[in-house]
Amino acid sequence: MPQSLTRSLIFRAGLAMAGIVLLALTSMLGSIMIAETASGDAAAINKAGALRMQAYRLLSTRLQVPVDDDVLRQQIELFDTSLNGSAIASLIPDDPQHPLTDRYASVTEMWQGMLRPALLTAEARPPQALAAQVVKFVSEVDNLVGQLQREAESRIQMLRLFQGIVLFLTLVLVFVAMYKLLNDVMPPLRELFHVVNRVRHGDFDGRVDYAGNDELGLISRTINQMNESLSQMYAELEQRVEAKTSELKRSNEALRLLYQTARRLNGSAPGSEDFRDVLEHLEQVTDLGPITLCLSQGEAERAYQRISTQLGDRPDFCVAPDCGPCLSGERVPPRVRPVVVSESDRRYGVLLLQYPAGQPPLRWQLDLVETVAGLIATNLSLAQNNDEQRRLALMDERAVIARELHDSLAQSLSYLKIQVARLQKLIHQARPQAEQEAVIDELREGLNSAYRQLRELLNTFRLKMTEPGLEAALNETVREFAQRGELKILLDYELRHCPLTPNEEIHVLQIVREALSNVVHHARAENCDIHLQTTDAGQVKVCIRDDGVGLPEQHARPNHYGTTIMHERAAGLGGTFTMRNRAEGGTEVVLCFTPQVTAGSESITLLGGA
């Protein structure tokens, strides 16, 4: 509604101020005008009062003997001037009926007709009569002065009345303005302040009822519109905050689900109970279900395992063993969403998600289900890879056993077979007993060597690295051989900064064990030091030193293969193996090889500095 000019607070306040200013100006102008009209009253009263003194002075001059006529005439002229002067004549109204005009005319007539001629012809009159005339004239002058005073007082009274009226009108105008302020302005202002105070405290439901056409009405409508807009905005913000909070809560639950799923599945081999717990948690987070997991082998058309959150582990739509349509995803029942469980293009089954009619899964629900399906596929893939690695490790272990048997016990048995053939030939040829006894001694020594090798192989095959790392296995080996040979063995291990592969650890451990076995059986030593370190060239150096008898000139006997096997292990590591006598006595066995962590690498090697 357009604002009316007459209803404007500014217009009404300005009108009140203009009225007050107008009354003030009127009061000042009226006072000035009345003051101007009364400006000659004092002079006229003074002149009129002086006429009495001049009359008595004329009487005194006239009664002197002799009479000074010149002085008398001068006094009479002065009296005429005072009586007819402007000081008195200017105050005499033109209205002949006015009392002041009548009094002035009476005084003038008495002066001109009685007292002035009597003063000029006083010789014919007695003094008493002249004095009586003067007294009568003075009485008339008193009446004129009294009338002048009354006229002056009437003007002052009129000024008082005028100022009183103006003051009353001013007070009335101020009272009306204050009344309008208290009744038309203050209530809307208090209401506005109350509503604004509620807005300050976050309450946007307050409304102003004032609907005037003035500025307060405009402010009231503006504040109402503002509160309405703020209420809508606040409601929208609350909805958005609630939606964001719900989304964050859902995301937090989804992350917790993924974390718990990854922790549960990746920490152990897959099992139906683990999968069931994951599916039940997924059903709680997505509010969908039942959820069924069907596992199959590759492209097989029949599942080998079914896990469902529905009671009985069999969903309503299941037609097993005809699992082909669900596994392929080509034909699924209504209200069922299939999610393929696959990893690296390898299928492990399908995740079947049931949902209510008319409420298909949302994008975040599908993303979460697909992520869980990926975690399940990763777990199955890791389990298969672990099985494959265990199979490979078993095959490698069998190959190692076969190689150990071939390189040691098989060659010893082959040597013994040849010696048996020689013994049979000597017996058949009836050779001397001494030659047969020599062959028998070689057979006995070969059998003892083969038995010792078999025992070493059994100890080797029984060796367990219960604790991770080569250092723990070496400590156990040192403890074992120290007890076996009553030998003081010192281990100095400086390879904690150099990671070795399991194959390298096994070969190093077997070489150390074979070297310690030689020390225990042949060196007749009291002390032995084992030192493992890295060289400046980035190689691993294994050194075994003893203080025994040292190596004989022909230390490689035909039916002993320990040294040969150590050479072969060193060659398998791509390194070198040496055995030599020490200058201070004893034997030194040295193995040097480049670990796979640095072999063929273009990065900077930091393994040196041992």
Q: If you compute it from the alpha carbons, what radius of gyration comes out, rounded to the nearest whole angstrom?
A: 70 Å
How many E strands?
9
The share of residues in extended strands comes to 5-15%
Q: Approximately how much helix is present in the residues?
A: 55-70%
Q: Report the uncertain regions.
A: none
Q: What structural class should be given to the helix and strand makeup?
A: alpha+beta
How is the main sheet built? Answer: 5 strands, mixed
Strand order of the largest sheet: 5-6-7-9-8
Helix and strand sequence: HHHHHHHHEEHEEHHHEHEEHEE
Write down the overall mean pLDDT: 79
- Work out the helix count: 14
The end-to-end span amounts to 96 Å
Principal-axes shape call = rod-shaped
Outline the secondary-structure elements.
Blueprint: H1 9-37, H2 41-62, H3 69-84, H4 86-89, H5 99-120, H6 127-200, H7 215-266, H8 272-286, E1 291-295, E2 305-308, H9 324-328, E3 336-343, E4 346-354, H10 363-428, H11 433-462, H12 470-485, E5 488-493, H13 502-523, E6 527-534, E7 540-546, H14 562-572, E8 576-581, E9 587-593
Helix pairs in contact: 1-6, 2-3, 2-6, 3-5, 5-6, 6-7, 7-8, 7-10, 8-10, 10-11, 12-13, 13-14
Describe this structure in a few short sentences.
By secondary structure, the chain is α+β, with helices and mostly antiparallel strands. The protein has helices at residues 9-37, 41-62, 69-84, 86-89, 99-120, 127-200, 215-266, 272-286, 324-328, 363-428, 433-462, 470-485, 502-523, 562-572, and strands at 291-295, 305-308, 336-343, 346-354, 488-493, 527-534, 540-546, 576-581, 587-593.
